Amino acid sequence: MIQSFNPPPRAVVNTVITKKLFLDQMKLTPTEKKLIRDDISSIHMRIVLQPQTIGLMEYETEEYQYKQIVISEVVLNRQSVCFALARLLQQAFPYPLILLLKYGEEYMINWADKRINLADKSKRVVENLEFTRWINPVSTDSITKSFLNSLDITKPQCHNLKELFDILKNCFYMLAVANETGNYSEATPDNILYYREQMTLLTQNREEQKNIIEELKSETQFNVHLKLNEELKILQRLENKLYNNLNHKKHE
């Protein structure tokens, strides 16, 4: 999985991050401590992207700081704890962090935006926590192969670490789009906002359909039942339209 990023040799590290580091330095609940002790097998810092290792400038404003991007691999003992552990690890580190969560032979990628806490500039506010689905790097299916090929950090034309991080975020996000369209397309500044908008609407639509289906199971009044069915049909037609929008944009 690490090789897919094609990192410069100077950026490759193999630093062990001990669980004791989190237990000693973070304010954790008993449940969170148990998660770290029992459900993390190992944590390694694998790639560190800095001006001296990749040749891109730092980026800093009052709100954001990109002095380095770290890609870490976390081996899990339980797959179901991936979301809870990712939140803890993102909160623990102030720099932009890409987590490669590994369980068995599969990986899930996690990333987030980190805004400087203006009340305490040593701390970060973690926002927009996102995840890919689980993937197997040795899979031969076309979506996985195209996705992994898109992660090559030597390809993008960018000037600073924030631009690179944004490019990688978009690559990760496009895997979710590919799950809908059946083909992986690389993100561009022109299409990523459109894809995000359509995917958000699609997710909301499906959640509304799910809620109506649950209501229908317990609804006994005939008129209400008819009304809910009509609402469901409208949502299903809209879902088809949103799905077609994604595929139409892909072929433009």
Describe it:
A six-stranded mixed beta sheet has the order 1-2-5-6-7-8, with helices on both faces. Strands 3-4 form a two-stranded antiparallel sheet. It has 252 residues and is α+β, with helices and mostly antiparallel strands. Helices cover 47% and strands 21% of the residues. The protein has two domains: 2-181, no CATH class; 192-250. The mean pLDDT is 89. The chain is built from eight helices and eight strands; from the N terminus they run E-H-H-E-H-E-E-E-H-E-E-E-H-H-H-H.
Instruction: Please count the helical segments.
Output: 8
* Low-confidence residue ranges: none
The percent range for helix content is 40-55%
Rg, Cα atoms, Å: 21 Å
Give the strand content: 15-25%
Order of helices and strands: EHHEHEEEHEEEHHHH
How would you state the average pLDDT, rounded?
Answer: 89
Tally of individual domains: 2
Structural class: alpha+beta
Number of strand segments? 8
What does the overall shape look like?
globular
Q: Spatial order of the strands in the main sheet?
A: 1-2-5-6-7-8
Tell me the distance between the termini. Answer: 31 Å
Give a quick account of the main beta sheet: strands, pairing sense, barrel closure. 6 strands, mixed
Describe the structure concisely.
The chain is an alpha+beta fold.
Characteristics:
252 residues; alpha+beta; 2 domains; 6-stranded mixed sheet; two-stranded antiparallel sheet; 8 helices; 8 strands
Q: How do the strands and helices of this protein lay out in sequence?
A:
Elements: E1 12-16, H1 19-25, H2 30-39, E2 40-49, H3 51-54, E3 59-60, E4 65-66, E5 69-76, H4 82-92, E6 97-103, E7 106-116, E8 124-131, H5 142-150, H6 161-181, H7 192-218, H8 222-250
Parallel strand pairs: 5-6
Antiparallel strand pairs: 1-2, 2-5, 3-4, 6-7, 7-8
